[in-house]
Design brief:
With 361 residues, the protein is of the alpha+beta class. The protein has nine helices and 21 strands.
Length: 361
């Protein structure tokens, strides 16, 4: 009797495995393209896991799927003159709940605001930085030779806010920077080309977020002060990227940066690859930025690189912590980064001094 029961349980186990295998086969090769497109586009936009797409499909099949799912970037560069630096913080009447979230400051904090944001299948965070001159680019002391965890880099600089900036291409023992980086108007170093679309992403001397396809030297001549290289560009001069199919970038953890016409900067990190937040697609990311009034916005390095650090109490350094949960393929926890966008403690004193100024009558 016991032997029959064991055989029965084993048979049920085999049936379950067969059903799962058939379901997976149907999703991968069946007539519904959604899952196939999602799998391939998600795998092919990672740095180190493109092989997964080729395990299931031939090179021709992968190429066809990518051709049918694309993001087409706006073709122009940022028009700096369109940013007017005039946030209206005095109003009690808001056009939308999103405008209220942006313009209604937290009590005692005139520098930034931390928002919890969410959508269908994803959760994340947005830091609203009121003065774009407060957004600095800070490099790890071992830039290009391994980098540092964002939390360590932030604490070393006593940062109020920090988010990953340059992309990293992981390899054994180190995480070399990708693309060009600019600091203080000079090319800091040029890493590996990752072919992610986009171009230079950074702030000029007037603190306008500039998205440009120009090379480093030419961008510096145009006034670029601090920048990294990544993409794709999502919104340029109010014009959004267009999408074919699912947009070609799948669903994943994302980091992104944008600026409104009133000068306010939006730092966005979306969690992914975990329970409660699988990640966000590029079309959804564009819609998110549109809701919050971004005039220029772009994707940054995502996946395991996506990390956000912030003080939950601006005046308490001990309240600084990693806000999101970085997750890569097969691991969780922070990835070493070459540099980060930061809001530094000097912003507190600067804003206090500005408040003390009394206009001449």
């Amino acid at each position: 009797m016991k032997k029959k029961q064991k055989k029965s349980k084993f048979s049920i186990f085999l049936i379950i495995i067969d059903v799962i295998a058939l379901a997976c086969f149907f999703l991968a090769y069946g007539p519904i393209s959604y899952f196939r497109d999602l799998l391939v586009t998600t795998a092919m936009t990672t740095m180190n896991h493109r092989y997964f797409a080729y395990v299931l499909y031939s090179e021709d099949q992968v190429k066809e799927i990518l051709d049918n799912n694309k993001l087409i970037e706006p073709e122009e560069d940022t028009d700096s003159s369109a940013i007017n630096f005039n946030p209206n913080f005095e109003t009690d009447s808001y056009e939308s709940i999103y405008e209220e979230q942006i313009l209604k400051k937290d009590k005692g904090n005139d520098v930034y605001k931390l928002l919890n944001i969410s959508g269908s299948g994803w959760k994340g965070y947005m830091v609203v930085v009121y003065d774009p001159s407060d957004v600095r680019l800070v490099f790890a002391s071992n830039y290009g030779k391994g980098g540092k965890y964002l939390s360590d880099l932030a604490e070393e600089n006593k940062a109020l806010v920090a988010m990953n900036a340059s992309g990293v291409k992981t390899s054994v023992g180190k995480n070399p920077v990708t693309g060009t980086a600019i600091l203080n108007g000079k090319i800091y170093d040029t890493g590996k080309n990752i072919n992610k679309g986009g171009g230079l992403i950074g702030f000029n001397k007037d603190n306008v977020l500039v998205l440009t396809k120009k090379k480093g030297k030419e961008a510096i001549q145009d006034g670029m002060d601090r920048a990294v290289e990544f993409g794709p560009f999502l919104i340029v001069n109010g014009k959004t990227a267009t999408f074919k199919g699912n947009g070609g970038w799948g669903i994943a953890n994302r980091s992104a940066i944008g600026q409104r016409q009133d000068g306010i900067v939006l730092l966005v990190v979306i969690d992914g690859r975990q329970k409660g937040s699988v990640g966000i697609s590029m079309p959804e990311l564009v819609k998110l930025f549109q809701k919050y009034g971004a005039y220029n916005a772009t994707n940054l390095d995502g996946g395991g690189s996506s990390a956000l650090y912030a003080r939950t109490d601006i005046n308490n350094a001990k309240s600084g912590k990693l806000i999101n949960k970085p997750v890569g393929y097969g691991y969780s926890g922070e990835r070493r980064l070459p540099n980060a966008w930061m809001v530094l403690p000097s912003a507190i004193e600067k804003h206090k001094n500005e408040q003390k100024k009394v206009p001449n009558e």
